[in-house]
Specification:
Blueprint lengths: L3 H16 L9 E6 L4 E4 L15 E3 L5 E3 L8 H10 L5 E5 L2 H9 L19 E2 L7 H11 L4 E4 L3 E6 L2 H24 L7 H17 L3
Parallel strand pairs: 6-7
Antiparallel strand pairs: 1-2, 1-5, 2-3, 3-4, 5-8, 7-8
The structure holds zinc ion.
């Protein structure tokens, strides 16, 4: 089986994503890019995560042409492929509909740098303009709004995180969701305080060590 290890990882993280309530039903998608093969490994569309076998995980090129797999690639493949084509530092993308991050995306507000563990994603997580699911407009909006960061909110839809490996991209999806919940809860009581520039820089240094010192 082509790219067996990557396809097994996608099934494992898909189940985890569903179990941890980062998505509902068949929503969300995960991919890994094999840069040496120039091929993308992506979760299949319209299939519940707890029923996906490695054979169902799709191998495609960056245009979405199927190379191997017995399902259809996620309809959001463009939103994954654009990062692999344009960013050399990104080899995995996780897209979820997690409740608190998606709530901020419905308000179309950015998640400010209030929580130290989302500094690796932002520091601020900006919200991209709305575009229809599955379109190249949505892919373009996500890519342009993320700039050189590693997370972006998708207006009235969800959130997307990226990293050089799936483990870290998934970690960012969890942390952005947690920080979005913190933001919403702290806004009930008052105005949360943003981390200062030097405090952000200290966390960037720590995350750079993690990201480049401990590769998957
Ligand atoms: Zn979605």
């Amino acid at each position: 089986m082509l790219l067996k290890e990557e396809r097994e990882l996608i099934t494992e993280y898909g189940r985890k994503m569903s179990r941890e309530n980062l998505v509902k039903g068949t929503g969300g998608n995960i991919s890994i890019f094999s840069r040496k093969d120039n091929l993308m490994v992506i979760s299949p569309g319209s299939k519940a995560y707890d029923t996906i076998a490695a054979e169902d995980v799709m191998v495609t090129d960056l245009e979405g042409k199927v190379i191997e797999g017995r399902c259809k690639p996620s309809s959001e493949f463009r939103m994954h492929a654009i990062f692999y084509a344009k960013r050399k530092d990104i080899n995995s993308v996780v897209h979820t509909h997690s409740i608190n991050a998606t709530a901020l995306s419905c308000l179309r507000i950015n998640l400010p740098p209030i929580y130290y563990l989302t500094i690796a994603a932002g520091p601020e997580v900006r919200c991209a303009p709305y575009a229809l699911m599955g379109t190249s407009e949505l892919a373009q909006a996500a890519f342009e709004t993320m700039q050189n960061d590693y997370a972006v909110l998708l207006a009235n839809h969800g959130v997307l995180t990226a990293a050089d490996n799936l483990d870290f991209a998934y970690y960012l999806a969890e942390q952005v969701e947690y920080a979005a919940e913190l933001y919403i809860k702290s806004r009930i009581v008052g105005q949360p305080v943003n981390l200062k520039e030097h405090e952000i820089n200290d966390m960037v240094t720590i995350f750079d060590t993690l990201r480049y010192g401990k590769k998957q």
